[in-house]
Amino acid sequence: MTNPPADWTLLRSLLAVAEAGSLSAAARELGLSQPTLGRHVHALEASLGQPLFTRASDGLQPTQATLSLLPHARAMREAAERLALAAAAQGAGLAGAVRISASRIVSHHLLPPIVARLRAAHPEIEIDLTASDTSDNLMFREADIAVRMYRPTEHEVAARHVTDLPLGLYGARSYLDRAGRPESIEALMQLAWVGFDRSDLILRTMASQGIKVDRSFFGTRCDDQVVYWNLVRAGCGLGGMQTRVGDADPLVERVAAFVDLPAMPIWLAVAEPLRANPRVRLVLDALAAGFRAPLDPAPAIG
Known about the structure:
Layout: H1 8-20, H2 23-30, H3 34-48, E1 53-56, E2 59-62, H4 64-89, E3 96-102, H5 104-121, E4 125-131, E5 145-148, E6 157-165, E7 167-172, H6 173-179, H7 185-188, E8 194-195, H8 201-208, E9 220-221, H9 225-234, E10 239-242, H10 243-246, E11 252-255, E12 264-271, H11 278-292
């Protein structure tokens, strides 16, 4: 086997195809066209003098030659990301963009007033907000700052715990007028509930309170938390929500004060090299102050 060209563009494409399992999926991941990705793979195959993938029923399978290259390609990817982070950290001015990643509920209800105040004070800072319930990779610059509801544990990611947001149990006023307001655990368990579909988060939370139920206990289920909350607001049943959101919504009211739900922690995470960037540091401080201070949540989705 001849030595492959030390071209990061080609090796990045090879790595993406090997990890994604197909040209189309890798092209979406890299933001390239499928023909371009195919040309990159063919260029490497021509250089090596042998095929890098074989076709299988479930996609493209890497050959042994590809498997031997992948550790080196991953090392190059890590080095490239470190270089990009180091370069980004050198920006001395405040002008420019900062990408924030947060859950859909936090992005819709809590971040807008914080971002508005930040932009009013520092219009030279641009904010890109990614609303997603999946965790972006900070070392790959998928986001500059991530708002997370758990303590980040990634290597070389700095984390700051900024506050704990209380949770409450809510029902639509229209539903409670019809079904009654529970004054005991027994009455609470007779009401309809909205749960998650594939996630077991609510099941685990209820179990921690000594309430053992299974998925079938919930007559309506959805993993999308924005849709989940709107199902509660529409009267499909009871559901949990941050009190900042639920208490501000005129369509619902808090019930079952005798149930003590655990608070939801808010952590801010940033790749360690970016902490030195003045723009990122300013946005971090603004987010921390915003989550700690009382604020008017964004209007609920109608």
